Amino acid sequence: xxxxxxxxxxxxxxxxxxxxxxxxxxxxxxxxxxxxxxxxxxxxxxxxxxxxxxxxxxxxxxxxxxxxxxxxxxxxxxxxxxxxxxxxxxxxxxxxxxxxxxxxxxxxxxxxxxxxxxxxxxxxxxxxxxxxxxxxxxxxxxxxxxxxxxxxxxxxxxxxxxxxxxxxxxxxxxxxxxxxxxxxxxxxxxxxxxxxxxxxxxxxxxxxxxxxxxxxxxxxxxxxxxxxxxxxxxxxxxxxxxxxxxxxxxxxxxxxxxxxxxxxxxxxxxxxxxxxxxxxxxxxxxxxxxxxxxxxxxxxxxxxxxxxxxxxxxxxxxxxxxxxxxxxxxxxxxxxxxxxxxxxxxxxxxxxxxxxxxxxxxxxx
Length: 365
Ligand code: GZL
Description:
The protein has 11 helices and 18 strands. By secondary structure, it is α/β, with parallel strands linked by helices. Bound molecules: beta-D-galactofuranose (GZL).
């Protein structure tokens, strides 16, 4: 089997911060070799380097080495890395994620090929096959879905191409089908969102969930974390509505328009990403509601959403840190040198509420 590196945290408590990252607001959507010489972070984003990431070697739990996995050592410096992005870069999460990968490739002087699947899974599979055909020696993939990767895994294995997946988990076996997995702790995000919802509502009332897109672990885990926490800590809060907004602003708005028609007295809305949360705010504005009439909690940490905390429309935002560049390349570097990496390391997430939204706005992406 060939090295496929995917890294996921088992617990924030065991992670050591390593390095600082910056993100760059860029858009790309084609397969090409990147020359990032013109991609200089703006001054404010350089100042935003307060985010810290875990180090692959510092994670807890089971580890993996190239010997155990059965790949070949290679010099990352002289390699070509292919990056496959899943969703179109209208969502700031995706823009910041791609920017972080590009910035780290540039910093390490590594040639980068990129592709964007425009939120179509079949295109992502062909994108990755295309990156391999264009000569990528290693792949970084932000998977749209958790299942359906077998064709890519087979092609990469046949050519001994290590894969790192970032932000969503693929259903495969650590240190067999892949080496390590990188992502946030999405169950933890759901729990933290529930805590903010309980605080905002006083733990009583009827709440709705705008679910993320189906078919990936992010939606299932953010929902599980939230529902379990509400059940544990606030029996007075009843979840009376759940519907997917597909992680999209427009759908988040249309679903919320229907919600407030059917449940005009809704107390709070948990949106599983900022884009849907902003759509919900737009729906409430359209219905003549005032800031704070409905308590909204979202996940991602985009600048637009954190600004809505300042403006009073959103009560809290849990960050889902997209700045995977340093951790993805460090994982590949450590692994391809023959050193061990943890099978599970997760990127550190911060959060925003009324108390820090204004002061930390520049840390949002
Ligand atoms: C989380 C990522 C999610 C973001 C959404 O790691 O997969 O997908 O939270 C995005 O904004 O659509």
